[in-house]
Write a structure and sequence with these properties.
- The structure holds 2 protein chains of 2 kinds.
- By secondary structure, chain A is α/β, with parallel strands linked by helices.
- Helices cover 47% and strands 14% of the residues of chain A.
- Chain A has an 8-stranded mixed β-sheet. Chain A has an 8-stranded parallel beta barrel with strand order 9-10-11-12-13-14-15-16, surrounded by 4 helices.
- In chain A, helix 1 crosses helix 6 and helix 2 crosses helix 6.
- Chain A starts with a strand and ends in a 6-residue tail after the last helix.
- Chain B has a single domain, classed as Histidine-containing Protein, Chain: A (2-Layer Sandwich), CATH 3.30.1340.
- Chain B contains 3 helices and 4 strands; from the N terminus they run βαββαβα.
- A 4-stranded antiparallel β-sheet of chain B has the order 1-4-2-3, covered by helices on one side.
- In chain B, a hairpin with a 5-residue loop joins strand 2 and strand 3.
- The chains are: A alpha/beta, B alpha+beta.
Chain lengths: 559, 87
């Protein structure tokens, strides 16, 4: 048995085979091949596999959505075996001696350019089809597996770390737990694991070795321990722990339907953070009062081009309808920084966390923002919608964004499209600047939601993706907590409510502090709702408030 | 060799899906070589999907079909019937 330890960022015990995430190779290697005929056959094999895969996808689409849906894959199939395309690749391999990967890449670019240069936006968009088909052939040549997991049974997934676009494509039914080399408790893998309710251990570094592939593993998310080839005693001990956790889970079930109220009668709303309309299911399952942060990025990450108004509208409408009248706060797109998307064609930045991201992109490229706001307001007719803008630093930004909201409403009214007049508009407080001028910002909006991950990163000058910073990245830092108090005081003075939608909201060590500060809403991952409710219902705020606030604002024995 | 002209009525023109269907249809005539010429005079092999898409034919534009070999009359007749139905 080999024991290694990382940082447990999502609790639970899981047992299964270890499996390494298979990733697409993004750097193309060019070389001259000796045996051109063999290289050509290698391409032909990959091409045939691609055609077979597309055939299967077409059949699946036909069963699920009919002939029209299948036709897309059939067209892709025909592109893959198109003679012009094939002959161009053949010439590069047989006449120039290029390797198959280089030949496919170059031919893909050549055909994509032909479409892109056509005088017709629909045909220009077909360049993406060529790239898609070529990407599929390249993945086969490289030996990459679609969706990253090629296993019949569920696995414990190992990776260096996973990008947001990768986590979205994962087949989630195949994952028992995550173990990653890098990452931190606020990395995307950690957040995804908590949303899914499965264990995750990050920061294992080079302790995870490739030879562990396929071997039995037990992970304990509460301690951060990973056991490879566990012995009998360890297995028995951890299975017992798993049983106890399930029991705890059952106890939490009993908290469903209960109020989020302290022993001395202070109420606080507990909402959920979600990343796609499908997550609404777990929001309701965990009995949250609403959705406090609906990240709209998935719409952009799932597409090869800017998502259309209708596409966005359907997604928002689904979330609102499924939530059945409970409040859903959707955050406008937070692209940039660690969430990069090719088609946005953002210039490469030295320091993207301090760069062109989120609301900044929206205000600089109003056409993208306009589409999203139209989709949001159209969806507002179908439920209880709130909209919030991320990454605010100045009052003028908020005024400009609100002006666009007004313009969109005016347009919809003129077009006779229904929307709700009671949509609350708020902002994220995630920069020290916004916290410091929260008295002025409070006069502009209906609510604040504090994004503690970024607020901590910007306040402490600690990159949240850098797991080497360890103890320096301290979300309990008095600077962060004092800012939260200041924001709350300013919000309440101006009659608006304030919530926390960062990871900190679920930190049970701080629940008493948040209640003492007077936070009105905590938005947490669905799985954290009931443990948080339990903690709230056990707290007497009047007993702890003076001591905690004196300490926070004073000498700091605790904070 | 037989030629005939056809005006595309499909609102999206000969785009990806219609082009895919058209190439599939043309494949059925294994004895004939069928080519398409757009209004700009560009001629392509009807079996080559990307080339057919590359013609960029829009609604209202005329495509010239050229049929060589096989039972040309029969091919012209059945292909034009298919076009009227589908494009």
């Amino acid at each position: 048995m080999i024991t290694i330890q990382g940082k447990g960022v999502s609790t639970g015990v899981a047992e299964g085979p270890l499996y390494f995430y298979k990733r697409a190779v993004t750097t193309l290697k060019r070389y001259t091949v000796e045996d051109r005929e063999a290289e050509w056959n290698r391409f032909k094999d990959a091409q045939q596999k691609c055609i077979d895969q597309l055939g299967e996808l077409a059949e699946k689409a036909r069963e699920e959505a009919g002939d029209e849906a299948a036709m897309l894959f059939e067209t892709h199939q025909m592109m893959a075996e198109d003679l012009d395309y094939e002959e161009a690749i053949q010439a590069l391999i047989q006449e120039e001696g290029n390797n198959a990967e280089a030949a496919v890449t170059d031919t893909s670019v050549q055909f994509a350019e032909m479409f892109a240069s056509m005088d017709d936006s629909y045909m220009q968009a077909r360049a993406a089809d060529v790239k898609d088909v070529s990407g599929r052939i390249l993945n086969i040549l490289y030996g990459v597996v679609q969706g990253g997991i090629d296993s019949e049974e569920p696995v414990i997934l190992a990776a260096d770390d996973l990008a947001p676009s990768e986590t979205i494509q994962l087949d989630k039914t195949k994952i028992l737990a995550f173990v990653t080399e890098g990452g931190s408790s606020s990395s995307h893998t950690a957040i995804l694991a908590r949303t899914m309710g499965i264990p995750a251990i990050v920061g294992l570094g080079d302790q995870i070795k490739p030879e562990f592939e396929g071997r039995p593993v037990i992970v304990d998310g509460s301690t951060g321990d990973v056991y490879v080839d566990p012995d009998y005693d360890t297995t028995a001990h951890l299975m017992e722990k798993q049983r106890q956790q399930l029991e705890y889970q059952q106890m939490l079930e009993e908290l469903k339907g209960k109020e989020n109220v302290t022993l001395d009668g202070q109420h606080i709303r507990v909402y959920c953070n979600i990343g796609s309309p499908e997550d609404v299911h777990s929001v309701l399952l965990n009995d949250a009062d609403g959705v406090g942060l609906f990240r709209s990025e998935f719409l952009y990450l799932n597409c090869d081009d800017y998502p259309s108004e209708d596409y966005q509208f359907e997604a928002y409408k689904k979330a609102l309808t499924d939530m059945g009248g409970r409040e859903v706060i959707i955050r406008t797109m937070d692209i940039g920084a660690d969430k990069q998307i090719d088609y946005f064609e953002l210039p490469k930045e030295e320091n993207p966390a301090l760069g062109n991201r989120a609301l900044r992109i929206c205000l600089n490229r109003p056409e993208i923002f306009h589409t999203q706001l139209r989709a949001l307001y159209r969806a507002s007719a179908y439920g209880h919608l709130g909209i919030m803008f991320p990454m605010v630093t100045s009052v003028w930004e908020v005024r400009e964004a609100k002006k666009m909201c007004e313009q969109v409403k005016k347009e919809l009214k003129a077009e006779g499209i229904p929307y709700s007049e009671s949509v609350q508009v708020g902002i994220m407080i995630e920069t020290p600047a916004a916290a410091v001028i929260s008295d002025r910002l409070a006069k502009e909006v209906d609510f604040f939601s504090c994004g503690t991950n970024d607020l901590t990163q910007y306040t402490l000058a600690c990159d949240r993706q850098n797991n080497d910073l360890g103890r320096f990245f301290n979300p309990h830092h008095p600077a962060v907590l004092r800012l939260l108090k200041m924001v709350t005081d300013n919000a309440h003075k101006n009659g608006i409510w304030v919530g926390i939608c960062g990871e900190l909201g679920a930190d049970l060590d701080l629940t008493e502090v948040f209640l003492s500060i007077g936070i009105d809403e905590l938005s947490v991952s669905p799985r954290s709702v009931l443990p948080l409710r339990k903690k709230i219902r056990e707290t007497t705020v009047s007993e702890v408030k003076d001591r905690l606030m004196d300490d926070l604002m004073g000498e700091g024995k605790i904070f | 060799m037989k030629e005939f002209e056809f005006v595309v009525t499909d609102p999206v023109g000969i785009h990806a899906r219609p082009a895919g269907n058209l190439v599939k249809e043309i494949k059925k005539y294994t004895d004939s070589k069928i080519s398409l010429t757009n209004e700009a005079g560009k001629t392509v092999d009807g079996l080559r999907l990307m080339a057919v898409m590359g013609l960029g034919v829009k609604q209202g534009q005329t495509v010239k079909f050229t049929v060589e070999g096989g039972d040309e009359d029969a091919v012209v007749e059945s292909l034009s019937a298919w076009l009227k139905e589908n494009l």
